[in-house]
């Protein structure tokens, strides 16, 4: 059986990445859409052969409960709306996939987890990197420690966006902010590289374009301290291009660069090991892995708890930055 996926929100990521990736998946396929923009419907129906009865708007999501073509509802709306629609999705009794970052607050994340538990449905967060093979190698090294103890790591993700679109990404209420949007990759990497949860955090935020970034961060730097003594330095920005993960250990180093792009994730280690396993399409792999968890009723690779751990730290990062870099215990 192929799992039927319904995309909620037909914005940039759904239309240019997820829907095309769903044409490459083996275990799932695009069967439904939820949109508040009726003009998008004919093109989507035609391109992906979606029948009238599988087209919904935000107010009719509850009706998906009765649709046998749909097994999963995939939330791909602005971050500040994830909780609202993920909870509605869970209440239909369908499984829930939710984009990163999971939500704006830890409390919202918990409410999504609770709704999925109550409805006995699976919940998985769209951290595509955790399905990418070279990233998996680095995640395994958190346990096997081939280069000894980790001393420090750097995780830097940024794009030089010269003209940021006036979208929800600049709107704090809707979950905008570079730390939420991009910084979460550096944060998640800090956690999967060490395999630990940080015990303290400090952060600074700065902007070179205050007229654009009136309520959200353009650039965030954060430092995490882990129980083993490892220190992570994270940077994220929409004013500067940067894409490297670098891990310095007692007996060597390794790196992935880029570590978070859709394609071309690769790296090397101080002993000459190359991290260069190819992958056809990250999102197709992610969705196939998640579909198999539903088909086989096995634990998901990236559960809601994983998304919530990051969001809790993101909240602490914003708090520390507001306090001018104060070190906060976690
Ligand atoms: P987008 O702005 O292109 O699309 C957002 C969609 O939500 C639009 O179709 C919009 O109409 C809809 N929407 C519904 N209610 C809205 C409201 N009140 N205000 C604004 N828009 C509303 O954004 P996107 O880039 O597609 O991002 C959507 C989600 O996907 C975000 O959570 C983002 O973090 C995530 N994302 C993940 C990745 C990844 O690599 N995993 C990449 C890009 C985006």
TrEMBL record:
Keywords: Oxidoreductase. Transmembrane segments: none annotated. Residues 4-127 form the Gfo/Idh/MocA-like oxidoreductase N-terminal domain. Belongs to the Gfo/Idh/MocA family. Residues 138-254 form the GFO/IDH/MocA-like oxidoreductase domain. One of its GO terms (molecular function) is oxidoreductase activity. PANTHER family: OXIDOREDUCTASES (PTHR22604), TRANS-1,2-DIHYDROBENZENE-1,2-DIOL DEHYDROGENASE (PTHR22604:SF105). Pfam families: GFO_IDH_MocA, GFO_IDH_MocA_C3. The keyword Nucleotide-binding does not apply. This is Glucose-fructose oxidoreductase. The lineage of its organism: Bacteria, Pseudomonadati, Bacteroidota, Flavobacteriia, Flavobacteriales. The keyword Protein biosynthesis does not apply.
């Amino acid at each position: 059986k192929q799992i039927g996926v319904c995309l909620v929100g037909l914005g940039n990521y759904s239309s240019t990445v997820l829907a095309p990736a769903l044409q490459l998946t083996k275990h799932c396929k695009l069967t439904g859409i939820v949109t508040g923009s009726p003009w998008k419907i004919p093109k989507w129906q035609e391109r992906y052969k979606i029948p009238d009865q599988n087209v919904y708007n935000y107010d009719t999501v509850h009706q998906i409960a009765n649709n046998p073509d749909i097994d999963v509802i995939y939330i791909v709306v602005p971050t500040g709306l994830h909780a609202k629609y993920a909870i509605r999705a869970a209440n239909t009794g369908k499984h829930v996939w939710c984009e990163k970052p999971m939500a704006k607050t830890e409390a919202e994340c918990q409410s999504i987890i609770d709704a999925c538990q109550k409805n006995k449905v699976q919940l998985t967060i769209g951290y595509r990197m955790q399905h990418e093979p070279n990233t998996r190698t680095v995640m395994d090294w958190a346990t096997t420690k081939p280069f000894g103890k980790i001393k420090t790591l750097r995780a830097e993700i940024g794009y030089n966006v010269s003209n940021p679109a006036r979208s929800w990404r600049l709107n704090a209420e809707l979950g905008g902010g570079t730390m939420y949007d991009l910084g979460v990759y550096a944060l998640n990497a800090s956690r999967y590289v060490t395999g630990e949860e940080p015990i303290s955090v400090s952060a600074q935020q700065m902007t070179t374009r205050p007229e654009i970034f009136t309520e959200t961060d353009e650039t965030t730097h954060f430092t995490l301290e882990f129980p083993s003594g490892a220190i992570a330095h994270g940077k994220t920005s929409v004013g500067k291009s940067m894409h490297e993960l670098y891990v310095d250990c007692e007996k060597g180093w390794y790196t992935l660069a880029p570590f978070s792009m859709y394609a071309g994730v690769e790296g090397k280690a101080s002993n000459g090991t190359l991290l260069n396993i190819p992958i056809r399409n990250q999102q197709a792999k992610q969705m196939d892995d998640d579909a198999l968890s539903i088909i086989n009723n096995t634990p998901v690779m990236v559960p809601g708890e994983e998304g919530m751990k990051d969001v809790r730290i993101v909240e602490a990062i914003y708090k520390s930055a507001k306090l001018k870099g104060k070190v906060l215990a976690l």
